[in-house]
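User: Show me a protein chain along with its predicted structure.
Assistant: Here is one chain, sequence first, then structure tokens.
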Amino acid sequence: MTQPILTLNDHRPMPQLGLGVWQMPEGRTAEAVGEALRTGYRLIDGAAMYGNEAGMGQAVRASGLPRDEVFVTSKLWNDQQGRDRTLRAFDATMQRLGLDHLDLYLIHWPCPDRGLYVETWKTLIELRDAGRVRSIGVANFLPPHLIRLIDETGVAPALNQIELHPGFNQADLRAENRRLGIVTQSWAPLGRGEDLAAAPIRRIAERLQATPAQVVLAWHLAHGLSAIPKSQDPGRQRGNFGALQVTLSDDDMAAIDALDTGRRTGPDPASFNG
């Protein structure tokens, strides 16, 4: 199955649909990621905070795939912001992964009260310019955070990974990311499962002989978003990957768009400093 590719603002290609490894036990991560790679996933999204980078790297190394065919993301946790800590944290991530390079490194949250996200962004630029990471971006950044980064460094993040699903579709932030040339990537793309029970999604799934999860993921893809659903179950991984074969009509898209309630399931980046 052909993977659709998004082009980042640094001209690097990234698969549109990936696997997230949040909450995967370290002991099961290598097996789960390995199964995903066999299914056809080529984007694996992790983070230092998830505690399973070693399993991610093990699976990539054992896959037999050329390294350049697998796009690996990790993230810097909040208490490691600031130049010196960021450099040490990046070294630790690379040691745990055991890979020769990282495709994308993200600041996990802006943590505005810490006042360190601009200094941290400058450090990510250093790492990129030194060839230690290929692309750099952010997660959970709001427009004021993004604009400040760009104003103070002249460098826009390649990607902004945000909570995004039919119940919280973030149309305004998506539009701002697009205006700034930033790819939007959706975490919790299935709304932690809650969105799958919505009547319009179930009706569309029945008509298309697809699963509700496939319909929701197809909605993300049709909007030009990257999505990183998480699952350890091989059957569910294969089912999610099948979203690449689902085509939604304009009416389907509008019906799913209309499910937005503006309700987050995770923290608010404007105030979260954890």
